[in-house]
Amino acid sequence: MPLRSYGVLKATITARRHATTRSDHYFLSCQAGTTRWEVSINAHSDEPPSDVEFAVFRAGNHPLAKRLGALKPGWRGLRPGDGLDYVRGGLCRPEHFKPLPLSKPGANNDLNELFDRHLLPGSTIHAFGEPWGPDPTRGVHDVHQNQGNIHHYADDNGVWQDGGLLVQTGVNWTAILLRFQSQSWRTHDATGHVR
């Protein structure tokens, strides 16, 4: 069964909060018009191996950037086929992804630092995932691959409903895609379940 509601939030990043061992999500505070939003980004997996895999690449020439650039700020529900699909969408390949820990001593070697580098206050975020709220806050989560899950999370499987982040800073577009190492790349074309 796919996510209950899927779409994309377009908003301006206003603040950031690091993931920690107590709270394993990196949070973005955002503004879309007069509405405040939070984007919750997984930086650790409950299932081993625990390091989340990421892919980062320039996306300014991708047709998706032009489509997103034309959207008005706020939440927009997406129909099947209009979202992201890591397996079928041609946006990425398995070899693009590398695991990173949530936090690690040293420079440029963990997800908090990766997110800090690309998710700058004042930038426009396009967060694909599932909404929550509005009480007490309004937000978006599941901004990672949402297919090929292990049995415990198989209810979230679906096609063309993967999460992800596309960030526009000035004229530059960057895609940040995330997945858990426990997720499979071999998924059923109708259900997104592991084949």
How would you describe what is shown here?
This protein is globular. With 195 residues, the chain is mainly β. It has one domain (7-179). It has two helices and ten strands, in the order ββββαββαββββ. It has helices at residues 63-69, 111-118, and strands at residues 7-17, 25-32, 35-42, 52-58, 74-77, 98-100, 124-132, 139-141, 164-169, 172-179. 8% of the residues lie in helices and 34% in strands.
N-C termini distance: 15 Å
Helix proportion: under 10%
Strand order of the largest sheet: 1-2-3-8-7
- Shape, principal axes of CA atoms: globular
Uncertain runs are none
Count of extended strands:
10
Total individual domains: 1
Portion in beta strands:
25-35%
User: What's the alpha carbon Rg, rounded to whole Å?
Assistant: 15 Å
Structural class: mainly beta
Average residue pLDDT: 95
> What's the tally of helices?
2
Main beta sheet: strand number and arrangement?
5 strands, mixed, barrel
Order of helices and strands: EEEEHEEHEEEE
